[in-house]
User: Fold this.
Amino acid sequence: MEQKVATQQTEIDALKSEKGGAPTFLSTATEGLKLKSADGNLDIHLGGRFQEHYRYTDDRPNSSKTTPDTFYVRAARIQVDGTFYKDYGFMVQGDFPSSSTGPSPTLQAAYIEWRKVQEARFMVGQFKAPMSQERLTSRLFSDFVEDSILTRFVPGYDIGVQLQGRLADGIFNYQAAIVNGRSHLDNQGRSRNDDNDTKEGVGRITIAPFATQKDSPLKGLRFGGSGSSRTSRASRSRAPESRPSTSRRPSSASLCSIPMPDFSTAAARASARKPPMRPARSRSAASTCCAMTRWTTAPSTPTCRPRRGTPR
Assistant:
């Protein structure tokens, strides 16, 4: 009897291996919902977090200059991440916070990563630029409900490519990214294309000397440094070249000139027969730098001469 049961179990296992097995669903309090195939080629995790605040202002001096006391949704994030074909990872995270004008959905992160080699993992998409350790740490694992104000002045979510890796069992870690460079103020680079040709390089190095010593109280001690670099290009636009004038200009220097269109030869001859006229003073910007305007014989460009006593 026992031999017959063992034979049947062997046949059942063989049939499962041929079909590849059905995907299994797992649900845990710490990891959320998970969908995983029997062969391990697909592993999807569904999670998120919710954070609600109440803002209260004591002894408000002027209600028109400060926000009213209110409940508001600080974060309502839904995240889908996982791996496919064991070597590729992905993550898509959306945030749906509240605001005074209504819901404001935001795409926080969206990227695909090649993870076959832990020493060199390649990522493309929208992710956190590797600058601030506080910014790189999720608020789920921080000691406070809010980040410090300094995180507003370091790169956050941006679009680009990144190469990162772990060496010597996690003692040495590095991250190097090339991004658009539009996230310098509180994640302003999220879902925004670049507005110039230059790109920004961001890099970070972390050393954890006691990472391999699991029982050491200093296993979480880390030393790190980060920086960014951006090279500005000169503007490609050229100033329009001025047309050379063939008219005779006065020999005295002038403080300002008013560009005028060229007159035809007939108009120039007609104006030559008339006595010189002194135009009335104008309140324009040109009249502030000179007090008298004199027209040349061919008035293509009137020039201004300083009045006596006017400082040069």
Notes: DSSP finds three helices and 13 strands in the chain. Residues 19-116 form one domain.
